[in-house]
Amino acid sequence: MRVLDVHNLGIGFGGLQAVDDFNLQVESGEIVGLIGPNGAGKTTIFNLLTNVYKPSRGSIKLTDVSILGKCSIPISDMNTLGKTPHEVARSGIARTFQNIRLFKNMSVLDNVKVALHNGMNYSIFEAFFRLPRYWREEKRATSTALSLLDVFDMRSMADVPAGSLPYGAQRRLEIARAMATNPNVLLLDEPAAGMNPSETAELLRTLRDIRDRFGVAIILIEHDMSLVMNICERILVLNYGLIIAQGTPEEVRDNPVVIEAYLGQQRGE
Fold it and tell me: Residue limits of the ABC transporter domain (predicted)?
């Protein structure tokens, strides 16, 4: 089943065309890589897919439903801007960021429970007075969060402050929190950044596991070519906001345009 359908997406900042004519179709359970040199427009695409940035043109459909309003509209017509970022997340697109964004003074468990609040069915009144429905919903959320932590092998860390976790565990927790929103599409922005080889290998296993367990589609921005080539079924290469190549890992790896624009730079370092 197609979960994401992007056509002719584009955005410019002043005289700079950051993304131009970007097209992407993603099926349920597919893992797609998005690679390219620094400044190629990769994170900008994630910001467009989550409606942080409003595109100047193009369309984005999540399970056949548009998440955009009109493009290139005046500020006075804000009601046509489509879904807000939090509404996009509720609709089925979750993401992580280049820089870890955890609530570092909160426990691992509470970091995951934060992402479950949209599905918790009690009022402010019931929460304030700790009425029975509040406790039932909290118990259900705790159970759901602990089950997710089991998937990421983090239940034993449930009561640990998130900020005291090792770097690799913080990255896994951020992905666990994203998965708590029950997404159809998971956007991961450089999840292996700063990881050592053993942490990267664990991340690879984790991503395959959540894909297989939940059927979620994953779009991955990553500079670790070993991870990309080992986990992605399809790769798009971006340069100066344009797709310059796409295909299987083998096709991309052997493409001379890609070698010159990106992979060749990596090999020469």
Answer: 1-265
Q: Is the pLDDT of residue 78 over 80?
A: no
Strand partners, 242: 239
Q: How far apart are CA 48 and CA 91, in angstroms?
A: 15
Query: Quick check: 76 pLDDT over 50?
Result: no
Q: How far is CA 141 from CA 108, 135, 144, 156, in A?
A: 13, 10, 5, 17
11-25, 120-134, 148-162: the lowest-pLDDT one:
120-134
H or E segment to which residue 210 belongs: helix 197-214
The Cα-based distances of 181 to 86, 147, 235 in angstroms read: 11, 14, 26
- Provide the CB-side half-sphere exposure for 113 (13 A, CA): 17
Token pair recorded at residue 108: 């691992």
0.85 surpassed by pTM? yes
Q: Which helix (H) or strand (E) holds 60?
A: strand 57-62
